[in-house]
Amino acid sequence: MVTSYFWKILSQQVSLKSGALKLKRERAYLRTKMFSTPSDLLPTMNTSRLIDTSSAEVTRVIPEEEILQYLCPSLLKLDYTTWKVKSEVVLAAFTFVSFVFLITLAICNAFPAFRALVFKHKVFMCLAVVRGVYGFFGIIVGVYALFKTTNLDRDVVFGTTATSAFAMCVSVGFFLFEILAVVISDIAFGTFSRMLIMHHSLALTAYSLAIYYEANYSYGSKGMILEMSTPFSCLCYVLLKAGMENSRSWFVNQMVLVHTFHLRSVVECYLWYVTYQNWGNIWHRMPVPLLTLLYSNLVLVTFLMTPYWGYKKTQQLFNPVDWNFQETKNTDKLASKKE
């Protein structure tokens, strides 16, 4: 009787332990499902495109999905996970945009309309040209990231392509140049480009953290299309300084420029929608510094910078002035004679 009672108690304990082990396995399974397919736990969010990034699939280079294979196939062979390659690309980008700036400054003296400008206006025009060049690059990368299905869509946190990795490093080099150039010019000419310094500082920090963590390449690459306004802003500045503010070319360019800010708002809304779709994955897996900076930037760009710049460029459409320096019509030639 004692023996039977002993075996009864033992069998109950085994059953309890088996049940606990089963419950533990079920909880582990749910945790795994939460990371691989968050839609199980977040049914209101469409996260079906996500995959488990514990595999190397979302970082594997797929040549047919890369722009670099058409531009320079040798760039596909670089290992963008090493700091040596990252540093070389950043340095190369910084050197290239510095060269563009110096060449543009030298070319200004070849045209009488630009030769008459005061030096600080030449500097700001050359900086506008550099931003225009980066803007074309940003448009290409942004269109690729938005409309081509790649690893950037399969995992918005850790998905990587060779093109996006290259673009992120180039962006760090560009914004590093921009910060140095704007700060030096502000000190030299007694100006304070508050909005530009804030925008470029946040962008430099965000892209630097992205290549450090090797994450957020999806938002970083898609967000580069927001530079779509800079080529037209550059042309606006050049035409204005050439005294062509009343020409049809300037008006058409300014109309396009204003509408690029409308399109920027559309892209920003899309990025918020991508956040809604993938919030479970983003919240649980994106590094906290990147998460904080990403949405700080997105809030500022969506609700402050794009509306402000859009308003200023619309205002400039009806009153063609250089609003960096002037409140009346273009008087650069008169100013240069006085100086």
Structural description of this entry:
It holds the Pfam family TRAM_LAG1_CLN8. It is a multi-pass membrane protein. It is found in: Membrane. With 339 residues, the protein is mainly alpha-helical. The protein has helices spanning 2-36, 68-71, 83-108, 112-115, 119-147, 151-154, 162-189, 194-213, 217-223, 230-241, 248-285, 288-318, 332-338. The longest helix has 38 residues, at 248-285. It is globular.
Question: Class by helix and strand content?
Answer: mainly alpha
**Percent of residues in helical segments?**
over 70%
Radius of gyration: 27 Å
Relative strand content: under 5%
Which of globular, elongated, flat, extended, rod-shaped describes the shape? globular
Stretches with pLDDT under 50, minimum 5 residues:
16-55, 327-339
The major pleated sheet works out as:
none
The ordered H/E elements are: HHHHHHHHHHHHH
Give the number of DSSP strands.
0
User: How many distinct helices?
Assistant: 13
Query: What is the overall pLDDT average?
Result: 82
Note the quaternary state here.
Answer: single chain
Distance between the termini: 114 Å
